[in-house]
Amino acid sequence: MIRKWSTIIILLPYIAGAAAATELGVKDTQFTLNGKPKFLLGISFYGALGAPEQSIKQDLDDIESCGFNWIRVWATWGDGITAVDKKGEPQQPYWDKLKWLVAECDRRGLLVDVTLSRGLAGALELFEAHQRAVEALVTHLKPYRNWYLDLANERNVRDARFVDFKELQSLRDTVKRLDTKRLVTASQGGDISLDELHEYLLTVRVDFVCPHRPRDPDSPRQTQVKSRQYLAWMKDIGRVVPVHYQEPFRRGYRPQQWEPSAEAFLADLRQAIAGGAAGWCLHNGDQKNGTGGNPHRSFDMRKKRLFEQLDDQERKFLQEMRKEIVDD
What is the model's pTM? Predict the structure, then answer.
């Protein structure tokens, strides 16, 4: 089965000096890159706006060499590293850093997930601020076609992150008014129920769904079945869109309960592909049982770049993944 990945994941080599023309789209249950079907294989790059440009370039070199084609970056990260302030207004120097990063990825043929959040450290305070942030991002990044917008990370969690479907609908309408072709989603903490899926598809009208699947040892074995279930439900609802796993389980999250191995990451990726999903991410973040949260991985890249902070199991996964999708 693994040797069939090359028919799904088409690695397009970067040609130095080529004109920037990286365009993300959707067609039925798949993403497209410059009009051709493309499985999105990505990696968390959350706190990139706080990293030095040279470190980012080195990480992007490694990201490309591994076969990844997209990164997930937060426009509202913690420790003051946010492209918009709590009122939704552009905030320097991170506003310009975000624009530079999107342009750099466009030049390389890479795609960017730009994520917003309500209520977390550095996040937006109220709906009005959320609206201003959406308007600013969509307007100023409109020339670039290589990014999509996650309106609200884990919008269903019943704390300060919560954004209801009507608010999401309004935010989505704002995006489409300013840029009709901009792809929009809103990620869900945990699996999506049938009723919730109906709201995402017909009320909010997202361009694709992003369930953040449960983080437990059974998760990798369930992804194929869950993916097929989502697609079957969509067919019954009458609107089919891609299923994108932008934030699966990660190492360091609850290490006393479960610390996923390289084999678990591989199994989850394989299951996502077998189930008809359109994208998957090597999620990474801080180490809850590490001194001071170290290694922070994508959560803090101010002193060390991402690829310097990955551990042995993550590196093992990259080696195995590279053999299967690049060496073929």
Answer: 0.93
